[in-house]
Amino acid sequence: MAGPWPALYLDDEDAIIASDLHIGLEDERELMGIHTPKTTFPQILEQVLTPIKHYNAKRIVILGDLKHEFGRPSEPEWWGVKKLVKTIREMGCEPELVRGNHDNYIMSVLSDLGVKVHDPALILADSECVLMHGHTVPPPPEIVRARILIIGHEHPSITVRDGLGVKHRYKIFLSGQIGAYHVIVLPSNSPFSFGSDMNETSPKHRLSPILKNRDLSEMIPYLLEIGIAVKEFPQMKYFQL
User: Fold this and answer.
1) Is the whole model's pTM more than 0.70, yes or no?
2) Tens digit of pLDDT for each residue in 168-180?
3) 3-class DSSP state for residue 41?
């Protein structure tokens, strides 16, 4: 992990890996009549830029859902994406995107900005990694000669109960073996998106086909308190409520 932030750092690649920024989500909610007291974009920016600064990384790969709206980018999305790319480059880092299911029409925006887009996956041969958003099935590992699969899309979280019986929900990283891959699932960078509660959501209702109907009991959750701490917890089988 890249410290207490929803991102990974791959030392061999000198790259930060982040996922699911969903820029523009708050504007969609405003249109639905759901008011947010302050913009979340500065929080998203901080969560992306802090690991870059800490590791002096020269590359950041966003695993899909850079923007939120399924259709053409709204004005806030267009502004937010441009601001994000500009700020990342001012730090001497180059952004790339692995296309996600929310990134329809994103090609025109990123083409204007000169940002590289990978669809459906980015293969990092030196690190034996496949980077995908997670909404599609990965290639067979023997074909791409990889053993690690890093995805987003699921927005994993977990619910724990304290000594008084009160439930608390945390974003998590999820790590473990699924089939032939060691799979790492990244939490969302959007403050609004806690996503799938991995110990309360039925396996058949999970979002990613990589995780749906899979036994995740042996996988390890890493609980994340953004900006404060990330901590390894026991296997998922100990979190059934």
Assistant:
1) yes
2) 899 999 999 999 9
3) helix
- The candidate with the shortest Cα–Cα distance to 189, out of 213, 156, 166, is 156
The number of residues making up the chain comes to 241
Contacts of 145 (CB under 8 A, 6+ apart): 125, 128
Structural domains in the chain, sorted by start:
7-239 (3.60.21)
Place of tokens 């937010």: 80
Please tell me the distance from the alpha carbon of residue 225 to that of residue 213, in angstroms, as a whole number: 28
145-148 contacts: CB < 8 A, separation 24 or more?
146/181, 147/180, 147/181, 147/182, 148/181, 148/182, 148/183, 148/184
- Taking only the tens place, the pLDDT of each residue in 117-168 is 999 999 998 889 999 999 999 999 999 999 999 999 999 999 988 888 888 8
